[in-house]
Amino acid sequence: MGYRLDIENKKIIETGVISIDIKPKEAEVYLNDIKITKKIPIRLTNRTPGTYNLKISLPGYKTWEKNIDVKSKQTTYIKNINLLKDSLPTAIDNTKNNIDSFLPSTDGRFILLSSTKNKTTNIELFDSQSEEFSPLFKLPENTKYQLEWSPFNNYILFTKFEKNIASISILNADNTDTITNYEVLIDKEKVLHYQWQKNSPIPTIFIDENNKIFRLTTNTSEQMFNLSSTTIWYIDDLEKFWILEKDNLIVKNSNDSQDKISIPNPLGIKKIIDINNYRAILQTDTEVLIISREQNKQEAIHTLNFHRNTSTNEWLTWSAWELWSIYEHDKPALLNRTSDNIKFVFPLDDVGALAIVNNHGIESFNPGYYVNQNLYNGEVYNASVYKRENRIYFFGKVGDKTGLYELNY
User: Fold this and answer.
1) What's the CA gap between 89 and 81, in Å, rounded?
2) Which range (6-15, 224-233, 345-354, 364-373) has the least confidence?
3) Is 136 a domain residue?
4) What is the pTM (predicted TM-score) of this model?
5) Boundary (domain end) residue, out of 82, 101, 124
6) 18 in any annotated domain
7) Residue 230 confidence class, pLDDT cut points 50, 70, 90
8) Nearest of 50, 53, 24 to residue 36 by alpha carbon
């Protein structure tokens, strides 16, 4: 009837419920080491309030375990969990042991690799879906260049620097046969000021050349805005042109009060990461500033690394010791604090589980349940997650061999 007698305290208490729905459905569930004979999804009613040890296991998968709390008249939900395969890494190509850079696309399908041999730098594209390598560029050794992925799509920006000219190539990783080239004048410090367009069906960047903002795509080049002087700028989804002016972000040539964001502490701002209707994300040399547009409040977190999680519409940002999330609406949330020196963070699935690369290797982390699981122990120099196929690719050392490896999860 939903009641239990608490003999120790001599009172009647109302019970709680445990609801379990995870994948794979064939997994076995143990509560306080007692096997539950029901099939997943499981609903356990009439549970005495208290702490229970929950263990979910399946041969070939890593066991998921956590102490859960059951409260009176409440349901404790265990859901949105995918058991991770217990597997070992396999070599993709151990001849690629002199990789200089390893740059994964936002969704993890593609990886840009560069290596130098016989005084030539070779840049190639690895497709995780077909597991094929395609050559992209060949450069003389010591050429100054820059590679970057769009944080929103599988678009590539390749820039080669020569004197005061930046030679830009824009391409779509899904169709590398079409490459568009531009030349842009840059300042003496060889700094290229640009921004990827967030929602674009083709590769598109906005770029500053002599205080003129141009839109460059694989099809066209057009001038968008003028700047009277060098300043920090950003173009949002509605193509409003934001500029930093003293202690305010304002939309150029707008009198709308909604087109102004006050910054309580504007010192040291170097870049605008994102602006939407709810908040602005700004970056300095040492920290990230999140400005609430509704409350006009500023929060600072000491992180400098970013990864856009397109499934959850959040920015993951981290330092060596802290991992944070910045959602579309909410203020930043601290997901994890660790002593293991976070190197890289990638989404593992569409419901929030993450892969963390640290000094010990690769581990999974589920922020919703605060559960960590080891995926690989060893030297990992860089990694990528292709969550569509549940595969991790990494450049590292397995045994005494350095190369590219695949790890199924």
Assistant:
1) 23
2) 6-15
3) no
4) 0.91
5) 82
6) yes
7) confident
8) 53
Domain that holds residue 321: 87-109+307-409
- What are the residues facing 408 on neighbouring strands? 391
Cα dihedral 345/349/352/354 (nearest 10): -30
Highest averaged pLDDT of the listed ranges 4-13, 106-115, 176-185: 106-115
CATH number of the domain at 15, please. Answer: 2.60.40.10
Q: Does a structural domain hold residue 391?
A: yes
Does residue 74 carry a pLDDT above 70?
A: yes
Q: What's the alpha-carbon Rg for the chain, to the nearest Å? A: 25
Here the tokens at position 216 are 């460059």
For residue 278, give the nearest of 319, 332, 318 by alpha carbon: 332
Question: What is the C-alpha to C-alpha distance for residues 168 and 180, in angstroms, rounded to an integer?
Answer: 8
pLDDT digits (tens, 9 = 90+) for 162-217: 888 999 999 999 999 889 999 998 876 667 899 999 989 999 999 999 899 999 99
Q: Which residue has the tokens 């045994």?
A: 399
92 in the same domain as 75: no
Q: Evaluate whether residue 331 is within a structural domain.
A: yes
* Residues 313 and 405 reside in one and the same domain: yes
Handedness of CA 139, 142, 143, 146 (dihedral sign): positive
C-beta of residue 101 within 8 angstroms of C-beta of residue 112: yes
